[in-house]
Amino acid sequence: MIRIGPFILEEPIGRGGMAEVWGAVHERQGARAAVKILTGDAILNPVYLALFRNEVRGIAGLDHSRIVRVYDHGLLTPEAAEASGGTLEAGSPWLAMERLDGGTLSDYAREGVDWDRLCAALLATLDGLAHAHARGVVHRDIKPGNVLLGVHGEIKLTDFGLVHAIATVDEVGDSLLLGTPAYMAPEQLQMRARDFGPWTDLYAVGCMAWALATGAPPFGRELKDALKGHLHLEPPAFTPDMRVPPDFERWVRWLLTKPVEQRVSRAAEASDTLAALSGRPRPGWRAGWRRPESKREGPLHGVGLGLLGVRSVPLVGREPEQDFLWDKLVTVDRDASPQVVMLRGGAGYGKSRLARW
User: Fold this and answer.
1) Pick the residue with more confidence: 313 or 102?
2) Would you call 197 exposed, middle or buried from its count of C-beta atoms within 10 A (0-12, 13-18, 19+)?
């Protein structure tokens, strides 16, 4: 029995270039999880270690129903390595996350999908990205394989290993070509790290929408073709495999605009436009800041201590102040005139936290 923190590993369920993913169960409560473990030479590679740290920081600071929830992280103990029979190595970083068993959007690309499911998948992806971008996180590897599906219809973003902090220079550096070329924006292919932003992920969403609608990314999957296409060519003729709304192609090409200053820069704007053209408009932001609580399991015993200082702490007990501030924001937007709000209170009362909110 291989024990990692409060989890018991069951069997490997996936493998990538730098890590294995194991199915696991919480020993005390029986909750199922997925545990990613850095393996092989990646343990000694500073780039892979930085990518793993990026994933921990990036995903642990997010809290949204469209983003896979992270439970805990740590280092593999000698006892766990011994129990694995040499399969795993002591000191390997691990990350325990929510587990979904419905496949990925890559299954949509292989098997085909109708418009309703395609639109729902794109809206869910954009909702998760809006949350991440608002917290200063750019994913940098949006593609069908990184959007997980649950058996009950859940759609969630995962694999934040290439996450880029908008306000800082990327820890991994700007001299490495990291990502999936078929879905990479021009600024990513040219390694212009200071040009990365929400628009970088939205370009990838455009590529993903194209691939899911037509069966292949706009410029193919090979690096040479992707470099030439993303940097120099307009997307080819758009020939979807299903009936789509008349303006869908225009929406996809909008996301695939090459100059960053001309590309859509907010996931919420892209989402609202897609919802409107598909005939399923949603309430605008003026309707309020509250969002329905997603259904999720309660806290797991002995989980999360490794994320102290990293996990996003919810703002609690400030609903009247939040309502007041939101009302002032709506007033500014409606009247196109400035407002000033004074937040007063003693030290430690939470004024700065409320202002950041």
Assistant:
1) 102
2) middle
